[in-house]
Amino acid sequence: MSEGASVQQVVILGATGSIGTSCLRVLAAHADRFQAFALTAHARWRELALQCHEVCPRYAVLTGVQAEDVDRSAFPTTTEVQFGRPAAEELVRHPEVSTVVSGIVGAAGLHATWAALEAGKRVAFANKETLVIAGPLVMSLAQRSGAILLPVDSEHNAIFQALQSGRHSEVSRIILTASGGPFRDWSRERLEAVTVEQALAHPTWDMGPKITIDSATMMNKALEIIEARWLFDFPASQIDVVVHPESIVHSLVEYRDGSVLAQMSPPDMRLPIQFALSWPDRLEGTSPRMDFTQPLNLRFLPPDPDRFPALTLGYEVADRGGTSGAVLNAANEVAVERFLQKGLRFTDIPRLCRSILDAHTFDSAPSLDELLRLDHWARQEAIRW
Ligand code: NAD
Ligand code: MG
């Protein structure tokens, strides 16, 4: 969209989450460009009602509570409140909507993201799980419908930016940075005894609980390797991971001549969200800037798959494709939930995932229905594990 273009009508899926609230701040900073058309949330209706008073969307959707459990008068009279997943899926298809922000966590985000892609919208997606589950199907759907898929995940947003400097065939590798999480330097013995509270304290990013645990196990990086594999169409062998504790360089692209292009900025999700909304334009930024008046040390360290075996799973699944992403994702979602409920040890998360992945019947070219069936199967297995 260029100057003078009309205001983009935006649906935010998962508005009450970490991505959703950052997105609302971007919309508020650029009210001349973006208008919230609809906000969705799962259960936290009071928070959603407050957000509706701030941005006055035409619709609000709650997917995890019934109408009788919600005080309708908490919402502005100008916002129509709807209930259930089909309502959210219908709204993302609305002809007035141009942009959908996919900020739901987990496989639960797949259906509405799929609906937005089918309807040919611009989809700013944070919900990496959708690509992990069904990468090839998602990419071909977007191609058929003309939908534009723009990554919000800071690493993929950085790679997307760095890829503008050369051709796909000129890239030798893409390099995902990882903060390393709170246990970067911990020994295997210490990792066995990690508590929920320790795992929820991320050193550089303030995010929802699921991705925070994923960052601590480095499963988040595994999911991001798979996300990058499908989104940018590079084989796993061209995707590297480097630990970068400061979270300033958000990822890098190396070209065949040896040039490495990095995207840098202080860690703040408003920047990648805004870029995904405004691309190909760049708007005035509202998040903190790099301050080069102070000394700055940046470290880059090799990852350790022995202490963080999730990384190996990520490479394996990115390489294998087929049904393996759906199975890994579902197993991990259940494992994280069980860990958060204190029913599983931290180091059991990748062990559980490995065991379910190895037990499943692999298919190299599954349909979406088959993937959803396997998602269900893997969850049942992971509950029993
Ligand atoms: P969060 O837990 O803070 O928020 C999740 C949102 O999804 C909430 O609005 C919640 O109401 C909604 N939701 C939860 N379960 C749902 C369900 N079953 N059906 C419908 N809606 C549901 O999560 P988050 O940290 O904002 O992460 C959202 C997504 O973005 C994840 O896929 C995550 O991996 C990705 N992501 C997040 C960050 C970050 O900084 N938080 C960075 C990169 C990628
Ligand atoms: Mg990320």
Give the SSE map:
Layout: E1 8-13, H1 18-29, E2 34-41, H2 45-55, E3 59-62, E4 80-83, H3 85-92, E5 99-102, H4 110-118, E6 122-125, H5 128-145, E7 148-151, H6 154-162, E8 171-178, H7 188-192, H8 196-199, H9 209-217, H10 219-232, E9 239-243, E10 249-255, E11 260-264, H11 270-278, H12 310-320, H13 324-340, H14 348-359, H15 368-384
Parallel strand pairs: 1-2, 1-5, 2-3, 3-4, 5-6, 6-7, 8-9
Antiparallel strand pairs: 8-10, 10-11
The protein binds nicotinamide-adenine-dinucleotide and magnesium ion (MG).
Residues 153-155, 224 line the site of magnesium ion (MG).
Structure keywords:
385 residues, binds nicotinamide-adenine-dinucleotide, alpha/beta, Rossmann fold, 15 helices, globular, binds magnesium ion, 7-stranded parallel beta sheet, Rna Polymerase Sigma Factor, Chain: A
What's a quick, concise take on this entry?
The chain is α/β, with parallel strands linked by helices and 385 residues long. The protein folds into two domains: 8-151, Rossmann fold (3-Layer(aba) Sandwich), CATH 3.40.50; 158-265 and 303-384, RNA polymerase sigma factor, region 2, helix turn helix motif (Rna Polymerase Sigma Factor, Chain: A, Orthogonal Bundle). Helices cover 43% and strands 15% of the residues.
